[in-house]
Amino acid sequence: MAIVDDEEHLREAVGEYLELQGFEVMSFRNAQAFREESAGKAIDVAILDIAMPGEDGLSLARFIRKSGQTGIIMATAAGRPIDRIVGLEIGADDYLVKPYELRELLARIKSVLRRVNAAPAAAEPQSPAVREGRSLRFGALTLDLDARRLTDAANGPIELTAMEFDLLQALATRPNRVLSRGQLQEFAHGRSADESDRSIDIRVTRLRKKIEPDPEHPRFIKTVRGEGYVFVPSGA
Known about the structure:
By secondary structure, this protein is an alpha/beta fold. It has helices at 8-20, 31-37, 57-67, 81-89, 102-118, 162-172, 181-189, 199-211; strands at 2-4, 26-28, 45-49, 71-77, 94-98, 135-138, 141-144, 149-151, 221-224, 228-231. A hairpin with a 3-residue loop joins strand 9 and strand 10. It is elongated and about 55 Å long.
């Protein structure tokens, strides 16, 4: 577990709390310290403050996302929804608004860990002949629900974040059914959400870029104006 925040008292409080919960915690005062001191160390979840002197949390999140399967939770200041939106766009798994309750942080960490630990490494492709369990096909793609993998026609992996996979699974297992944003938050991420929350829209946009032949004219994940989204496996 890594905490990257320029507020020393917050790092200490969060670190002490998480250690009491049984986590091994590393704390860093800024992005540079994280880059220098965490190299070669396995980190399950990184909690990143967005507004830090020097390199900000968004830039660091991009670096972490390119480096492996580490879960990322962004800490954003109240009244800055744009930070949350950008964080989700670059692949953060979750976000918290500062100041946050430590019990809420713990719940978010456990949720992210469940998703990250369930996602297999992209470097472990499996042949369709030996793969077993539930799978869904749409277009040239195959969604393996047990292995938590999305593959193309040549069985090559299409990389999804844990939250992207959860959202695609929620849609694909309820085909031809209009789902509101609140329903998708509940089905995919296990928590309720206000219908005005647009984080689902951001993830849908990211998913479309990965699964749609033409993301500007989606065939599989279609928008139902004023209601939500519907997954059409036939691509009609």
